[in-house]
Amino acid sequence: MSGFLNSIGRLRAPKRSPTTTPTGQTGFFDPLPSPGLEFTSPPTTTASSTLSGGPKPLYLCQPFIKAALVKGSFKTIVTPPKYVDVNEWVAINLFDFYHNLNHFYGALTDFCTLQNCPTMSAGPTLNFLWPDQNQRLVSLPAPTYIDFVMSWLQKLLDDENVFPTKSGRDFPSSFAYTAKHIYKHLFRIFAHLYHAHFEQIVHLSVEAHFNSLFAHFLAFGKEFDLLVVKDLMTPQGMGQGVSELGERWREMGILES
Ligand SMILES: [Zn+2]
Prior knowledge:
Blueprint: H1 2-10, H2 75-78, H3 86-108, E1 121-123, E2 126-127, E3 130-131, E4 137-138, H4 142-157, H5 175-203, H6 207-223, H7 241-251
Antiparallel strand pairs: 1-2, 3-4
Helix pairs in contact: 1-3, 3-5, 3-6, 4-5, 5-6
The site of zinc ion (ZN) has 6 residues, from helix 5.
């Protein structure tokens, strides 16, 4: 459990608090909505906008698509070590994905602003919506959406009933459900950062790190059935954004199909 505890110690609070949103809305992240029910993404532009005809996203272009620190199979790093409980292995990795993604987001907060990113966009016609207190789907600026997710997630990771750290305490029976839910929201943050901020990621010279983290995230999600990308997209969003990146990586053999 020491790695798990170390991960806890490394966690950082998001840079901004959801209580400082311009609308004053709070409490959006209680309780857990059902996975898969709130992924709606109505097109924000007219039907003529580009599903396939727009400029190719930078992250799908050479050499960026191949930039990666990890060489070889991801299978070896997603497989649980011997004698490690699967739930514990998933928990450790969720901590690390959260922690690492929060680092990248922290480096991009100067660019991911209310003005630059008024919606949680992830493709030409793809926006993720957030369920409010009444489970109505609302559009939020990306930094607000991401801060809500990160704060909700930090709270969840600190909850001893969800992520037990003390010996003798078992993971709750709902842990797989919770893990899938966390995965879905982390995926959306990756999707937004790739879509809206990849140029800045390249300027920071961290595209190889970011690709490696995302490829690891996809490989781990596949191994433990945490992520079904097609379930995260609407028909408008299929083939867009990072779902296309994952497909290309499979074709290139970077990810297993
Ligand atoms: Zn943004």
